[in-house]
Amino acid sequence: MGGGQAGLAAGYHLRRAGLDFTILDAQPEPGGAWRHGWDSLRLFSPARHSPLPGWPMPRYPGDGYPTAQHVVDYLTAYEKRYELPVERGVRVRSVRRVDSGYDVDGRFAEAVISATGTWWRPFVPALARRLGGRQLHTVQYRNPRQLTGQRVVVVGGGNSGAQIAADLAGHVDLTWITRRPPRYLPDEIDGRTLFGIATHNPGGVGALGDIVAVPPVREARDRGLLTAHPMDRELLAAADTVIWCTGFRPALGHLAPLGLRDHHGRVTGRPRLHLLGYGNWTGPASATLIGVGPTARAAVRTIADEPGAAPRSRSRISRSPST
């Protein structure tokens, strides 16, 4: 479930394992969440350091790091290259345990990989409900033109907050609010380095900083245009528009019938059910292009090693009998 980068990485390894499978994707076109980012969104790394398994991302022809559209083009071509069986416009509502497998909205599957990501479940603090004015989240921001002449407050000290604040700097009356002073990673660190740190350091990259200094952020910072302020309700109340760059939560509503959360709120596994690409808790850097491959390979290896998982000539996801 999910036809973005995590679903495609899983599809690549399922194809190599000789297993029959179907990828169900709610989106009408390839590209996953990359199709929905803001206009200036770019990768943290050069194309050669942003591969899915099997086929490196083609070189980006322009200057700097690849744009989101370049990633969309790559994912579209990747899907075609490996002839991955994607069914589009299929939004999975519920997954239930049945004998020998799972019922996926009336389809029977012996194994399930959930790769729906986080973009579709933006997190906005409860404080937003007590404010007037226009409220946006990262997912709704496109470019400065939609906010011309406004007093805009950007809330969030992570990468999206810094990038959107840098995008707006000089175009609107901008205030940037962060929970603590911004922590920029050293300028020479990019996504390739971050992946190596996340893979080999159990503590992750948090100790180094929160913000990758991609060129637009670095330029705005060095020009003195990214001055962060602590949380201030008066600043929020005075804004024409507040953009909440406050992160996301895993989009797991379709798995609610399985009761995966324990009394501490942690997600626990089930046989032949794999969660892929939701962040570090599903594998080091598994929400990144380069990082999702190893966890996808491990999940497929587990499925392939299950008794009765030998390849068959017809799809192993089919309409379930009446239940």
Automatic annotation (TrEMBL):
<dbReference type="InterPro" id="IPR036188">
    <property type="entry name" value="FAD/NAD-bd_sf"/>
</dbReference>
<protein>
    <submittedName>
        <fullName>NAD(P)-binding domain-containing protein</fullName>
    </submittedName>
</protein>
<dbReference type="Pfam" id="PF13738">
    <property type="entry name" value="Pyr_redox_3"/>
</dbReference>
<dbReference type="InterPro" id="IPR050982">
    <property type="entry name" value="Auxin_biosynth/cation_transpt"/>
</dbReference>
<keyword id="KW-0560">Oxidoreductase</keyword>
